[in-house]
Amino acid sequence: MDLSGYSVSELNKLKTDIDREIRQRRKQQAKEAQRELKAVAEKYGFALNELVGNAQPASGQKAKAKAIYRHPEDPSKTWSGRGRRPRWINEWEQKGRDIDELRVG
Predict the structure, then answer these.
(1) How many domains does the chain have?
(2) How many whole angstroms separate alpha carbon 50 and alpha carbon 91?
(3) Residues 48 and 74 occupy one common structural domain
(4) Tens-place pLDDT, residues 6-50
């Protein structure tokens, strides 16, 4: 598929449509897999939840990392210590302050 003739906005629209279609198909595949697993479990005299417990499908998102540092004046601003440092951390250190002063508990 040659995409060179598409504008950026057309490509973004196409990407959005593709992502939506992939999600819908994955959902459908999960339902089909669950039906097949249920049939196999019943064939052997089990309920599906007896074999897999209360397993939930992965949401595809990681749990949010726990805050390690908190802004001294705005407690809604936190940083886990992972990824890029927030501007307020850099500003704090530029003032000659120690980052450990911002450490939570």
Answers:
(1) 2
(2) 55
(3) no
(4) 999 999 999 999 999 999 999 999 999 999 999 999 999 988 888
